[in-house]
Design goal:
Radius of gyration: 15 Å
Largest sheet: 4 strands, mixed
Number of strands: 8
Helix content: 10-25%
Mean pLDDT: 93
Structural class: alpha/beta
Distance between the termini: 38 Å
């Protein structure tokens, strides 16, 4: 028998605040019993649940795992603009003149994630 991933867990300093940010980013919902100050908070999305857990140790190295986001109803560049407006920060711009590539951003606690082209953008370039 095999196993399934129940959720992806991220260590963080403020689980509730970061979960609220990611819920907005992913169009997910925050757990009904999650509140500010809780030691953990859960974001549910159609694709995956993400659990945020308080860890008091500061992050000291690059993420060993990260999310690659693919916009569903907008272009990569429109999604990057939306996420920057929500409080993400630009970490690296890997867009190429031909329209391919991705953008690396960080969430409010500095966790890296990438924004790739939408499926429509990929199809147009194929």
């Amino acid at each position: 028998m095999t196993s399934l991933i129940r959720h992806v867990t991220l260590d963080c300093a403020d689980p509730y605040s970061l979960a609220v940010w990611w819920a907005e980013t992913l169009g997910g919902t925050l757990g009904a019993d999650d509140s500010p100050g809780d030691p953990e908070a859960l974001v549910s999305t159609p694709a995956v649940d993400v659990l945020f857990v308080r860890v008091d140790d500061p992050r000291s190295v690059k993420n060993r795992i990260h999310f690659d986001l693919q916009p569903q109803d907008r272009t990569r560049d429109e999604e990057v603009d939306r996420l920057l407006a929500l409080g993400a920060a630009l970490h690296g711009d890997h867009r190429r003149p031909d329209g391919s590539g991705w953008v690396t951003l960080t969430d409010p606690e500095g966790n890296e994630f990438c924004v790739e082209r939408s499926a429509g953008e990929r199809a147009r370039q194929a």
